[in-house]
């Protein structure tokens, strides 16, 4: 685990409420976001991510699928631009199948840290996917980073 200080990061995204079994409903929107950015010539500033806003592992999960960009843009429909907040983040990198992320999250969240969370509502909790599935289709070879913002002292 690392503690990092991060600046604000603008991103374009789509938000949805899903369950663990319907997660693909939001994940499958990432190609649409990439297509929009590519069509407009908007520079991508980092790996695609999921931002977890509200988590109930037995029920609904409010989540965003997002892509970091260099500056906000105008978008239509259910797409929007926002900013990941600046602050200190606890991070952990995972190499392997995304199914292993639950254990990574469990380990990170078991640390004695003051996480930015109120009940089931997270200030900023993300999973960034560094491996492009068209380049590396074997999920066992993927690199993913989990990050959660800490409360400011």
UniProtKB/TrEMBL annotation:
Residue span(s) of domain AraC effector-binding: 1-151
Annotated SMART domains: AraC_E_bind
Classification via Pfam families: GyrI-like (PF06445)
Record field: transmembrane: none
Protein name, as recorded: GyrI-like domain-containing protein
